[in-house]
Design goal:
Shape: elongated
Strand content: under 5%
Radius of gyration: 23 Å
Distance between the termini: 84 Å
Number of strands: 0
Length: about 190
Amino acid sequence: MKSGKNYTKPAGLIIAGCLFALLQPALVPAQRQHDSLTNPEIDQLRDTALEPDLRLKLYVTFARARLAALELARSDPKTTDRGQETHDRLQQFLDVYDEMNENIDTYVSRRSDLRKVLKTVIEADTEFQAKLRALKDAANTAKEEAKHYEFLLSTALETLDTSAQDHRELLIEQEEAAKQAKQKKSRK
């Protein structure tokens, strides 16, 4: 009997460990979301939760700041591991950009009018694409350095290309819907 009790405690620990291992991946995205933003940025976003125009403009500003930090790190002669630093800064940009897209999806599902802010987002898309293409085409990048971030850079460019197209299509859809709503209203 005594030996049975000793086996149940380790079994309970093993089961608890397995449950933790299974649930941990579900917790990681929430942590990633907050890791990509600073506390002051989170506070600013919290204050604009019900204002899509202001909130999405903040995301554009944060993404732009991440790209500026990337450019600064790449031009800083004190940077020791430029390839890894580029990778990390690029990942930070992509995390913020992905969060912006998630917010756009949320506001679309709420049927928010995003026509005005989408113009700002589309302009930013073009700016971001140009900066990332310039990074990809940089002639002064060593191949060994580029290995650290080339896959992530390709992923970021694909994400930007797809998102820019989605944003343009969404703007067209929303302008058409607003036009139809205005025509319907004028008929009454």
